[in-house]
Amino acid sequence: MQSVAVPHRASATAIAAAVRGGRISARAVLEDHLARIAAHDGVFNCFTTLTTDRARDEADAVDAKIAAGGDAGPLAGVPVAVKNLYDIAGLPTRAGSKLYRDAAPAMADAPVLARLIDAGAVLLGALNMDEFAYGFTTENAHDGPTRNPHDVARSAGGSSGGSAAAVAAGFAPITLGSDTNGSIRLPAALCGVFGLKPTYGALDRCGTFPFVDSLDHLGPFARCPEDIARAFDVMRGVAPTPIGDAGEMRVATLGGWFAQQATPAALDAVRLVAAALGAQGEAVLPEAGRARAAAFCITAAEGGALHFEMLKTRAEEYDPATRPRLMAGALLPAHIVQAAQRFRAWFAAQAALLFERYDALLAPVTPCAAPLIGQARMMLGGKEVPVRPNLGLYTQPISFIGLPVVAVPVYAAGALPLGVQIITAPGREAVGLALAKRLEADGVTRAAVVP
Fold first, then answer.
1. Is 243 inside any structural domain?
2. Residue 359 — φ and ψ, nearest 5°?
């Protein structure tokens, strides 16, 4: 079992086992993490709010329950933190914005967060994000950028950048984010941690600030597949069970759109994972580029409609990077959105045909490693393109049809981390997690806390 001598480097599974077994107190685990945050978050800028008093009360309650001989839960003493679009009782739900800083405080935790706390977890606070989850870089005009723990000059990705960076920085072994077009998978890849975007609708989104109702997903980040699985089970209200054996799985690499424009390093990461899993050649998901375009249209239209009234009266208070996209989306003609929604059913059917032949499909998460903070343009496929929209080239077609994905980190010596998507059929998260566990056991994929 992993040592918890330095709790902020330990897995959630190891921490919970040590706390439940009386080898370390939940309060000691918490104080170690708080000290780590105090020492380093001034640089990384992951947290927008710390709930220190609440966390100490929760840790003390876990220790008291154990002292009384009770069951403190499968996440006993595990520090967690959430993207600041999750409701936290007693705090306004900011969603990365200036507009909601003085909003009425939430009356209760979001249900998925409440389940983590009921399972013994300890809440550290709320994490930085792109305003209203509309971005891929977590360069927030109101809260500042979250910096990548592997290179503080670079982006942590977004929109759940604070959540991914907090795991990589050793601030929390489990964090929660959201993913509309790639906002869990992308920061997980750039920060070198594991992330799960479950099947659309698998987790209760009540108590979270919406962005695009027909595309929004919730999910966890962690430093190992076992912790991802444990958090996911707790969040959906089932008893945590160990990840099963992957067995003989039919795996293919996605070609076509997913093999174009990426840097050689991003494609090498996919080849490494494919070789380790014995991938059976290449598969093509047709019209993936069109799916990405359709996802853009739906995102803009639904996001613009959600913010329409606020944009009419308080547009100047929006992040300048968010405001024009929401305003343009509010003006998008209805027939374009209708066409995008009609195409969605066809595209989902094409994916279903692939899953008759394969158990999992592999693709890059991002076309490149983390860009510099403030970088506006980059070279992809021999062309200069804007950074922000193009980081999600390979994630948008997948969330467009709600498929579950485990993002696994891949490191090359001396290089920044990259990520690979393990994509499975709806409801088959267990397959992706089993394959991720196999890759971890074989040393192909790993996550690590930065020094």
1. no
2. -90, -25
